[in-house]
Amino acid sequence: MNYKDNYSKLLEHEKKTITKDELEKLLGFSDSEELYTAVSQLQAAGVLQPVKNSKTNGNILYPVFLKYKLCLVQDDFSEELDEINALHPQLHYDGILHSRPAEYRKYRKELRKLDSYLFFRHTSCIPVSRKERSFEIFSREKLLDDTGFRRLLEKLNLNQETLLFYDTPEYCFNDFIPEKKPEMTLLICENKDIWFNIRRRMFEDQASEILGTPIDGVVYGAGNQISEKKALTSYTRFMGDTHVSYLYWGDIDRAGLNIYLSLLKNNPDLKISLFKQGYEEMLRLSTHFDIPDSDDKRELMGDYSEIYKAVSNAYRDLFKENILHNKRIPQEIITYADLLKIMR
Known about the structure:
Largest sheet: 5 strands, mixed
Helix content: 40-55%
Low-confidence stretches: none
Mean pLDDT: 90
Structural class: alpha/beta
Shape: elongated
Order of helices and strands: HEHHEEHHHHEHHHEEEHEEEHEHEHHHH
Strand order of the largest sheet: 6-10-7-11-12
Strand content: 5-15%
Number of helices: 17
């Protein structure tokens, strides 16, 4: 980086003094020789004056004082102000750019592209994702994630609403929802096979009821991923004003029940309940199998009493017995052939 670049960087510093650590961060130098060379140039030009009682860094070869006074020659920014005056009216909001010509200089290229976009965007422009809009305007898909530039846009009152973009949810789950409705019940499946099979029945046969329970879609929970903090809340928020309730269906083992408990704990504002009909069907089928021990050796995570109560009396003791003896009934006990019978 040359003298001019270093000087431009110092224009961003708002205080009259600057420390060695601040210089390293602002100029981007961690190497002692590079920092010494840059500081020497700026000192020779009279831009930096050492505060001598601050002492030096102790480096004999490349001594740098721990503190300097800044002596910057202020630019009249006449060229930048002329350019700002010619920008789209939305970029004149509250005189922000006129009062911050240094910021305009820093983001000149990007703001001129934004100016062109505002003048020529189509009137029927529809919302797209943040990265899509960023690439469309600036040919850089991550620019709207840049903290400094984003703050400037916020000051200019240019936000998601005015630039018509949205943020995709932090957590994206594989789902199948044939039709978005004002109110929906979505079934969360812990495992991929049964999620795929339910999706197949909904897609190929327009099935919308399983074991007598209507569902509007199915979501693949991907094991523990669904239970990460606020993951499901983020996914639900992305649906907008739709009122969504969830049914959870996973393996009958400690790990599966722990996922459900974490799901409730990490998404307290959502309506989530156990898909009791699915668990009862798994328990019914399990009586025809030699059920294996779980390979998860963790102890019981908490109180499962409310979970046990979710199933009917006819299956409650069997449910408890499998969990207490650390057994595992996988969702794969219900095959696609079974779904042909229990879904319609």
